UniProtKB/TrEMBL annotation:
The keyword Hydrolase applies. InterPro entries: ITPase-like_fam, Maf-like. It comes from Nicotiana tabacum. PANTHER family: 7-METHYL-GTP PYROPHOSPHATASE, BIFUNCTIONAL DTTP/UTP PYROPHOSPHATASE/METHYLTRANSFERASE PROTEIN-RELATED. Keywords: Hydrolase. The keyword Acetylation does not apply. The gene is LOC107766389. It comes from the Eukaryota. Pfam families: Maf. This is Maf-like protein plu2839 isoform X4. GO terms for molecular function: nucleoside triphosphate diphosphatase activity.
Amino acid sequence: MAPKNLSFKTADIDEKSIRKENAEELVVALAEAKADAIMSRLETTEQLEENTHPTLLITADTIFFGYILPTSIGIEVAVYQGIIREKPSSKDEARQFIKSYSGGQATVVGSVVVTNLTKGIRKGAWERSEVYFHEIPDEVIDSLIEEGIILNVAGGLMLEHPLTLPFVDTVIGTADHVMGLPRSLTEKLIQEAL
């Protein structure tokens, strides 16, 4: 049964103003900041408490780390060791990101935060997946950048994009997590928040 009164809102936060040392802390902090921003624009707590059914707010965030797998050696070498990849700030940065995934690997760290607005309960967690890529031709990279959609996604890459999908070798984790909202983690947090 589909939930009643399902709606989507944007958080409109300055993600660059929120910084954490590691990826796991950052994605949870961003999802919590999104929840706080949306909650500030919603009904008052008193109105929500009058509801007979719980009102849930679900927020999420995802970031990428890029790696190259040297084929002659067969081990991972961090290209941007310790650098978190959010949305690319330019076409040049997007090109740099995608080229580093070509023939390599990207680690995706994402979070989900579920806030029960009626009860004031918040549950959050993070998840990590890895995506391994075949070589991505320059013409495909050019097409992705010219299309422009990848400039609005973490790490500058959409796993499910028709131009990207043929170059995905292996996903360790779940595709729904890589695309931004891990279903099983979200369902678990909803149950905990209820």
